[in-house]
Amino acid sequence: MTNLRKKTVLVWDSGIFVEMARRLAEDFGKVYYFAPWASGYPTSRGLLIGAGDDTFERIEDPWPLITDDKIDLYVFPDCYEGHIQHYLASIGKRVWGCRRGMELELDRPKAKEMMAKAGVPIGDYKEIIGLDALRKYLKTNDDAWIKINSTRGDMETFHAPTYEKIEPRLDDLEHNLGAKKKIMKFIVEKGIPDAIEGGYDGFCIDGQFPKVGITGIEVKDKGYVGRTMRYADIPAPVRLVNDALVPHFKGYKYRGFWSSEVRISPEGVGYPIDLTARAGSPPSELYQNMISNLDEVIWYGAEGILIEPEYTDVWGAEVLLHSDWADKNWAHIEFPKELRRNIKLRNYTVIEGEHYIVPQLCGMPEVGAVVATGKTAKEAIDRAKDIAEQVEGYYLEAPIEAMDEAIADLKKILGASASKPASKEQTAANAALKAGTISQRQYEKMAVKNGWN
User: Fold this and answer.
1) Are the beta carbons of 231 and 212 closer than 8 angstroms?
2) How far apart are CA 82 and CA 72, in angstroms?
3) For residues 36 and 16, what is the distance between their CA atoms, to the nearest angstrom?
């Protein structure tokens, strides 16, 4: 195996995944971090993201390192630099990322067409241009989800149960968009009644998925609960989406993080609603801690070699940290030092040993997350709740109740899988444990590796 302690990594990010640089610094010799900051009138604010953390080095310009061939591995946890990734790979660089597979996330209609051609059920949706046309549609169509393609800073996905209930949101959007309201393109999806949202979370290497992955439930903008399990036991509607995209993953030479969100109806039909061609947030903050050999997964994966992840626990829980104040103002975040690895911050800087969130002015209240793992869902959730209560900041909130909602849905969606008889391997391990030929610790390691209940 390659000695990764002698390798240099460049993490090219947007600010959301700055913690990835900190995590990779645990295993690689040198980690640089870059987040674009230049504009016609740049400010020092953008340059401070990632600055001050003594585990990696924040840089202003990656190109001298690129042209002087100082980087052994390029890691792109976000999806907006797909063409740069493609270029670096084309000149022989080792790149972890979605490459041109970014279009799976950033061009929703195109991705839906790809999946439909492969036999994936696609829910009703409509492309609408202009806010006036959107208003007209919503006045006669209840239970709709409003999305846009790639400019997340313009608006996040929101639900319109009825026009009357969402009219103030549309008024605010009209004000914020200004003249662009006339040409803004919206994707409107009809709701899927009584469905439960599942998905796949992990990574993909040229269309290959690891034998054991993570599946979980996200409570939108609040939290996530997931568990490791054999890929073959992940709900079939979720696997169908991945399988349908395999030819495209191969074509992109997609070698990076991948997440999907699939609404599964009471009849067991899965409708993909969102694809994430990057590190999902959540739960990438969680599998930074959950995958012990993340360095090897990324290093060899960037070369096209799939390395099976080694999980530290079966279950994981993540609760997001919110502060409406932090979007437009500097926010100080305080927590016990011994909990640092369980706290994943976005857009942070360290000044005189204190952690601050750099304001982003984009209307997003999420400033980070708390993560925890466990051998049971309860253990992971209780631990996450305990840690969240020890994080302090101005107007800082942690919606810990969301994890109870998530675990209830996850149990429903995994009901069929959970009721399956134990595999031959698990049966043999149970017998060996009972006979005393393997220890409880050995059994638990096998359970994590194979995703047993």
Assistant:
1) yes
2) 19
3) 12
Cα end-to-end span (Å), the chain = 32
Euclidean distance between CA atoms 240 and 272, whole angstroms:
10
Q: What is the pTM of this model?
A: 0.90
CA gap 20, 75 in Å, rounded: 9
| C-alpha dihedral sign at 228, 279, 295, 306 | positive
Q: What is the residue-level pLDDT of the chain in tens, covering all 453 positions?
A: 789 999 999 999 999 999 999 999 999 999 999 999 998 999 999 999 999 999 999 999 999 999 999 999 999 999 999 999 999 999 999 999 999 999 999 999 999 999 999 999 999 999 999 999 999 999 999 999 999 998 988 998 999 999 999 999 999 999 999 999 999 999 999 999 888 888 899 999 999 999 998 888 888 889 999 999 999 989 899 999 999 999 999 999 999 999 999 999 989 899 999 999 999 999 999 999 999 999 999 999 999 999 999 999 999 999 999 999 999 999 999 999 999 999 999 999 999 999 999 999 888 899 999 999 999 889 999 999 999 999 999 999 999 888 888 887 777 766 644 334 456 666 677 666 666 676 656 665 666 566 555
Domains and CATH numbers, the chain: 4-104 (3.40.50.20), 124-190 (3.30.1490.20), 196-417 (3.30.470.20), 423-450 (no CATH)
Q: Please list the alpha-helical segments (H only) found in 197-274.
A: 236-252
Pairing mode, if any, of strands 8-12 and 30-34? parallel
